[in-house]
Amino acid sequence: MNRRRIAIGVSSVSGLAVVAAGAMSMFGAGGSANAVDLHAAPVAAVSDAAAATARAATAQADTVVTVASPAVPAQGKTPAAAAQNLSMHGSGQFDFGKRIGSLDLTMPSGALNEVMTPSTLYVRRAAAAATATAAAVPASAWSQTPTAQVSDGDLISGGATDPSLVFAMLGGVQSGVREVGQDTVRGVPVVHYQGTLDLGQAAAALAGPASAKSTNSADAVADKQALTNASQAFTTTKVPFDAYLDAQGRVRRFVATFAFMENTATKAIAQVTSATELYGFGTPVAVATPSVPPPAPKTAPKTAPKTAPKASESTPGHRATTPSAHPTSPTSSHK
């Protein structure tokens, strides 16, 4: 199967690169706590977590995407490349009912603002405050990219995984999920599950175009396309995951690992870990769809103005006494 090229950190949109840290180190360590018992089999508990979390309506979010690229040996005139870990951290808010969220993404090389919807990713370069060596830089204009046109459906390309896509992925949870044990996330007791999901199965579980008669159905169609793209972009449709659920069965932390071919010549496989942490359920969220400037109109090519013919050239019954200019002679209007 042909795999699509993936640009991590919306580099194709912003020109900014993702830079290094461990996915879980951004969130801090958990610990033992009062036991959480969801009274459900592990597969059922994880599968039901999508609906349980969506019922909270809103949440704050912290995200980290880390890319681990393997070392590449020298080939001919191409020098060897050392292994490297690159990552970006985001914080923001999501409205699960309206299916919209915003993230502020930070990295050593710059910062981005993003607004995520099922069908569109909006991105702009964030404003930068003045420093001792540089003047303040205003935020750039918003740009937009249809998620259907992103190679992985914007599952990780935007530098974060939209929580609503996390919920959609849970439709592909496979048998064999196991309970790892008790933990805490931001001081909240959780139960930790570990298993594998299938992107293709998750996509198949969503509604198709024939049912896109409402906003929710249209969102499901967008999610289906996103997961279909993702299933074709990575080296496998199988995705290992860790899910941390609270006593209400809601996702408090979700970590998934993807693999894609980074270099077709060397067959180098990069591992991408996407970690999403949700908290502050039910807090007010205000996110608006950005206004995107229309594309600049195309300028029509200039042509020579038509001028009235001279009487000596066009008066019926009279022969011209002086030669007229050739109609295709270059003029300033043709340059």
* Widest β-sheet, arrangement of strands: 6-5-4-3-2-1-11-10-9-8-7
Q: Kindly state the mean pLDDT as a whole number?
A: 82
Output the helix-strand order.
HHEEEEEEHEEHHEEEH
> In the CATH hierarchy, what is the architecture at level 2?
Clam
Overall tally of structural domains = 1
Radius of gyration: 27 Å
Percent range of helical residues: 10-25%
Count every helix, treating DSSP H or I runs of 4 or more residues as helices: 6
Oligomeric state, counting identical vs distinct chains: single chain
Keywords: Lipoprotein, Signal
Organism: Catenulispora acidiphila (strain DSM 44928 / JCM 14897 / NBRC 102108 / NRRL B-24433 / ID139908)
Protein name: Lipoprotein
InterPro entries: LolA/LolB/LppX (IPR029046)
